[in-house]
What we know:
Catalyzes the reversible isomerization-deamination of glucosamine 6-phosphate (GlcN6P) to form fructose 6-phosphate (Fru6P) and ammonium ion. This is Glucosamine-6-phosphate deaminase. It holds the Pfam family Glucosamine_iso. It is an enzyme of class 3 (hydrolase). Helices cover about 30% and strands about 20% of the residues. The chain has a 7-stranded parallel beta sheet with strand order 1-10-9-6-2-3-5, covered by helices on one side. The chain has a 3-stranded antiparallel beta sheet with strand order 4-8-7, covered by helices on one side. The protein has one domain (about 1-200, about 215-235): Rossmann fold, CATH 3.40.50.1360. Helix 1 packs across helix 2. The protein is of the alpha/beta class. The two termini are about 20 Å apart. The protein contains 7 helices and 10 strands. The chain binds 2-amino-2-deoxy-6-O-phosphono-alpha-D-glucopyranose (GLP). 2-amino-2-deoxy-6-O-phosphono-alpha-D-glucopyranose binds near residues 37, 68 and 69. 2-amino-2-deoxy-6-O-phosphono-alpha-D-glucopyranose binds near residues 38, 40, 68 and 163.
Amino acid sequence: xxxxxxxxxxxxxxxxxxxxxxxxxxxxxxxxxxxxxxxxxxxxxxxxxxxxxxxxxxxxxxxxxxxxxxxxxxxxxxxxxxxxxxxxxxxxxxxxxxxxxxxxxxxxxxxxxxxxxxxxxxxxxxxxxxxxxxxxxxxxxxxxxxxxxxxxxxxxxxxxxxxxxxxxxxxxxxxxxxxxxxxxxxxxxxxxxxxxxxxxxxxxxxxxxxxxxxxxxxxxxxxxxxxxxxxxxxxxxxxxxxx
Length: 243
Ligand code: GLP
């Protein structure tokens, strides 16, 4: 065990393979705890999962989910929120119990307590069985931005200018992108039993290379995954040019 790298032809095959991993997890353990990601990268995977569910190939009725992150502050009904994204891309289309869906609270008044409660809920669920990750251009996972140390638990983050710029494409104006977010921490991610990281497109090639061939450093948060014992990278050709 350690890190496996699966190189696929393109976005569609990457998405299909990722969905098959999630389906296998839920098949082997129907009460699995899934860690879920947002962003453009996993959209295709969610589409595949919805299709598999509609074909009767997966049953989500006992599954629990914990999302990696959410903007702060943001209302759930705001179409830019990750809560909204998850409903639109997955939860509205499958038989998951809404009580078992967890996303950091973008409207929490007491953020610190809300983060502590989030970590306690993950712990009480027995930790994450399979964590799905994307990767930011600056090497962030979830919203764990480059820093001088790894942040352990769920925490409030000041987003990097680069991240705000990258995410501006989802908003009508760059000024509308929230400057802060709540993110699951590195300890929780590293305690996941299995991790699958997806990356697609030429723009991710460089960061994938840095992650695989550079040093493990909080300055490139994804680099810590080299220390996990069960990580699968699913890359498409373009994201794997330097591998
Ligand atoms: C976002 C999310 C991450 C995601 C990353 C890459 O800001 N917080 O969880 O993995 O950036 O996004 P994309 O898949 O759209 O490139």
